[in-house]
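Q&A log
Question type: sequence-to-structure
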Amino acid sequence: MSVNTVAPTTQKDISTDASPGHHLSALPEALSARMRLPLKISNLTLNSRVLQSPLSGVTDKVFRRLVRRYAPQSMLYTEMVSAAELHHLKKLPEVMDIDPDEQPISIQLFDCRPAFLAEAARKAVDQGADTIDINMGCPVNKITKNGGGSSLLRDPETAIAIVKAVCQAVSVPVTVKTRIGWSDDAINAVEFAQQMEAAGAKMLTLHGRTRAQGYNGIARWDQIAKVKAALTIPVIANGDIFSVDSAVQCLLETQADGVMCSRGTLGYPFLVGEIDYFLKTGDRKLTPTAIQRLQCAKEHLIMLWDYKGLRGIRQARKHMSWYAKDFENAADLRDRLCQIETVEQGCELIDSAISRLKTA
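Response status: OK
Response body:
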């Protein structure tokens, strides 16, 4: 999926504040017992039911390293990979650059041509992918106008052919990430999900919004609950997972087999690990302070510079803006970080902000 930076809408007034009095005091026992069980995706066993969503322009190797630090057992996803680009390029793109220690990891592919996707899937498995995820939910026009992403919700025959072709091409589980429908007048989540399962998909992740919604409004978890009740393969809930509390509430309402975090991890790579820890133990990790978040931002910046050079600095600007929030003078720091030209500039700005916070 591509990233929309519109401020998140909280689900049913669930607080994203971890302060006392604003969160669940205990995890319901039935949910706790279920969440402690391994997640089975065909022949693959995961020891976490909290997943990091693929995010275009975000979930590169640097970001995944940070998420992995706090969520050692969660499934991570690469950025969305174009099967057409893989077909025409002589060398694999950077988005398929996977560290040997990144497992479990999935590579997400998009296109509308079964043969192209099958070929791309084989290359992805050669790179180390534990599953192949087919994007059938991206709402961005440049993807949907060419028949990919969420446009496949309106073309189930092609979607079925894609899943069958990829399943035949690789030995790892094939999964699908999609939405509840194209628009309010065309919600077909249950029927579409059943078709994907019948075609061979071994897990389905459902974002509780339509394509027309984009990232606006509230995710409709009730539609995820309907899909979960209709399928036998694991169903992962996605949409409005911004905190431990929202994750728990989503699991209670949907009875899904797990949750996938997306925009909630922007500037906050701690989230997947926080949710996973709570689901497994019933205890909460200490929420990172503003200083700790800025220290993470600085490390993220340096890692992007080391990995991508000047391109990494340009990409870091948006990440830095996501980190710089919820403390005094955050807006001013955010504005300055969005204009950095060098890693030294960024580090100086962050160091000065940390110093001010220490003496405040």
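Response note: The longest strand covers residues 174-181.
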